[in-house]
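Final report, closing paragraph on structural work. Over the funding period we assembled a curated collection of sequence-structure pairs, and we close with a single example.
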Amino acid sequence: MELVTDGQWWFCLKHMRVEPDAGCPNKDRMGPYASEQEAAGALERAADRNKAWDEADERDD
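Its predicted structure, as stored:
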């Protein structure tokens, strides 16, 4: 079943899935995101950013 919403989307870290606004508490989620697809890529984007920050730190040392 696909959810239809005009609101914000979140990635739930507890359940490892995308949720609409009405979902788990925000403390357990990443977001908000403008679309379901954007929320689905939350973990990948976070990993990419962490890698970039780690590489920048190594260059600064």
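The chain is about 40% helix and 20% strand. The mean pLDDT is 90. We thank the funder for supporting this effort.
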